[in-house]
Amino acid sequence: MLRIHFTGVDLARVRMAGRPDALWETILSFHRLRDRRDARLFGEWRTETRSRLNSETRMLGMLIPGRGYFPDFLTPVEGQYGWDVGLDALRGIRPERLRRELSLLTAGAPPTPRLRDFVDGGTKHLPRLLGELRGYHRAAVEPYWTHIQAQIEAERAARGRALLDGGADELLASLPPMLRWRAPVLECDYPVDRDVRLRGRGLLLQPSFFCRRTAVTLHDPELAPVLVYPAAAHLASAPTGSETARPAVEEQRVRTLGKLVGHTRSVVLRAIGDGATTSELARRAGVSLASASQHACVMREAGLVTTLRHGSAVLHTVTPLGAALLKGGAVAS
């Protein structure tokens, strides 16, 4: 069991990450790649990713076990600002921190010769590690980044609603079921028994597409507190990459996009704004509830809208593709 202890100051300093964290998604996707479960969600992604992997990943496999601890330095806080920024932070890791965190991988057992070589070599092996990370990220995460962004935006919209409705208390209570808010403690099923005391530092909530079943936090209690948890939107949405989508899927998307041409759906898409329930969408666009639901369904099939259940209602948010269509520009990477 993981228990995160809040003070009144910590509650005031709870915040949602502004975007998916590139390094967390990369590291957690490496877990998903080796996991045989969730074939419906990740089976096709695994097949596509393995077909693109033509670079070495042995070092990643050594540093990221199938379960349990992996070094904190692989997921620096700077990763929330983008892949290149996160990689620069990883490149600047201090040798003493690298050795200290690598030593925790053995859990008291003698290290393997390869791990001992990494520990003894300090930062000299970093270029190879960074190269493996880049190659893996390009194959496993980069092709799906627009989809990942859409799921995280939907998650942020739902949690933002909770925050506006009832403050930080309601926000924490609205998190996915594996997280249980029993003020002043947030509990989570966890592989080990652990207490995290925030001590006035607050908590960064980082929703993740590739996080599954349980939340993840950093091992070092002195690092800035972050809780990475599964984004609820992805539970019914498998990753798809536009350049790797099957022809039949692309043909269906073209047909669906064709249905979107027209004034009413443009109005509906714009009316979603930063998020809207179906009833709010109907009111804003001046259409019936049934019409709003039908338009949202078509736009969801076309990849322009993501829908996430929010309490007894559903919340629609615009995906990066939908935003680009409204702006008449390209999808942001």
Strand content: 5-15%
The poorly predicted ranges are: 242-247, 329-333
Q: Provide the succession of SSEs.
A: EHEHHHHHHHHEEEEEEHHEHHEEH
Q: How are the strands of the largest sheet arranged?
A: 3-4-1-5
- Mean of pLDDT: 84
Helix proportion range: 40-55%
**Main sheet attributes: strand count, strand direction, barrel closure:** 4 strands, mixed
Based on CA atoms alone, the radius of gyration comes out at 21 Å
Broad structural category? alpha/beta
Quote the distance from N terminus to C terminus.
37 Å
Tell me the number of helical segments per DSSP (H or I, 4 or more residues long): 14
What general form does the structure show? globular
DSSP, total strands = 11
In short:
By secondary structure, this protein is of the alpha/beta class. It has helices at residues 8-12, 22-34, 39-52, 58-63, 83-91, 95-103, 113-121, 126-140, 145-173, 247-259, 263-272, 278-285, 289-301, 320-327; strands at 2-5, 14-16, 179-182, 185-188, 194-197, 203-208, 216-217, 226-230, 276-277, 305-310, 313-318. Helix content is 48%, strand content 14%.
Secondary-structure map with pairings?
Layout (H helix, E strand, L loop, with lengths): L1 E4 L2 H5 L1 E3 L5 H13 L4 H14 L5 H6 L19 H9 L3 H9 L9 H9 L4 H15 L4 H29 L5 E4 L2 E4 L5 E4 L5 E6 L7 E2 L8 E5 L16 H13 L3 H10 L3 E2 H8 L3 H13 L3 E6 L2 E6 L1 H8 L6
Parallel strand pairs: 1-5, 2-6, 6-8
Antiparallel strand pairs: 1-4, 3-4, 7-8, 9-11, 10-11
Helix pairs in contact: 6-7, 11-12, 12-13
